[in-house]
Backbone:
């Protein structure tokens, strides 16, 4: 039996960073349109080039989800596939993956395919991918449904929160008034938000300066669930120094098991923008 883990490119995990003798891993890239340039969010995308293009472009940039055909190609590569997507409240990617599942099962009814809406992005999907890999490698009986059910329970327990420092993309897309965005940036005020259980975004707090922002984030983590023994993934958008400081704050304030730092890929950089930080736990 060939096990297959598939994710869209919002997961912040490079395909080259995944190793297993029993499980294959593939990311299906989203596309980012900046003016007349299109960026494919694969392992070769250079994020600073994307950010520079977005900063130079006066009009709003946009994203496009993968086609059902792109997901179908990934699903056809194995006997049993579990796919994770960015929150269906933020993108049409989940619907594209479900359409692909139905297409493949019509042609290959012997295959098993499960599509799970992460109701999140970034580090939360990384944690789901790694939990799937662990369960698949330990499986001896081909318990596909059992693994899918365990992953659905795990997904419901995961949380995501983030902080923004740059608001240019929100302003260009009409989601924030220029006066408000420029004022927040001038005053050094960071927006702190989290993902609801339904996968929508909720602005939870605002903080001025790095130190207060990181304390506010750990307070939000503490209030969202019992973090004892939790694995934490921090995705940073060209902000390694900030991620390291946040990691230290988390280790000081919360009884977590571990804190890992990853670089944002293209899609999460599009949303987090320069110096943004996203936590999955």
Residues:
């Amino acid at each position: 039996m060939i096990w297959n883990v598939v994710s869209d490119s919002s997961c912040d995990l490079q395909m080259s960073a995944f190793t297993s003798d029993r499980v294959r891993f593939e990311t299906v890239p989203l596309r980012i349109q900046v003016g007349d340039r299109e960026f494919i969010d694969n392992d070769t995308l250079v994020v600073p080039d994307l950010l520079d293009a977005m900063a130079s472009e006066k009009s709003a940039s946009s994203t496009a989800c993968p086609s059902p055909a792109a997901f179908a190609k990934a699903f056809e590569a194995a006997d049993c596939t579990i796919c994770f997507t960015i929150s269906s409240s933020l993108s049409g990617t989940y619907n594209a993956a479900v359409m692909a599942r139905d297409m493949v099962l019509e042609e290959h009814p012997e295959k098993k395919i499960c599509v799970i809406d992460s109701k999140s992005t970034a580090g939360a999907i990384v944690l789901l991918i790694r939990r799937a890999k662990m369960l698949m490698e330990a499986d001896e009986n081909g318990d596909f449904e059992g693994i899918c059910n365990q992953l659905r329970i795990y997904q419901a327990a995961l949380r995501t929160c983030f902080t923004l420092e740059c608001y240019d993309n929100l302003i260009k897309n009409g989601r924030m008034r220029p006066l408000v965005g420029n004022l927040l940036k001038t005053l050094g005020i960071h927006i702190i938000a989290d993902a609801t259980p339904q996968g929508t975004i909720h602005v939870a707090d605002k903080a001025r300066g790095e130190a207060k922002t990181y304390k506010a984030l750990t307070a939000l983590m503490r209030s969202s669930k019992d973090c004892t023994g939790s694995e934490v993934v921090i995705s940073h958008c060209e902000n390694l120094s900030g991620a390291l400081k946040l990691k230290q704050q988390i280790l000081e304030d919360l009884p977590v098991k571990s804190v890992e730092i990853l670089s944002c890929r293209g899609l999460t950089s599009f949303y987090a923008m320069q110096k943004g930080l996203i936590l999955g736990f």
Observations:
- The mean pLDDT is 93.
- The chain has two domains: 3-30+65-157, 160-280.
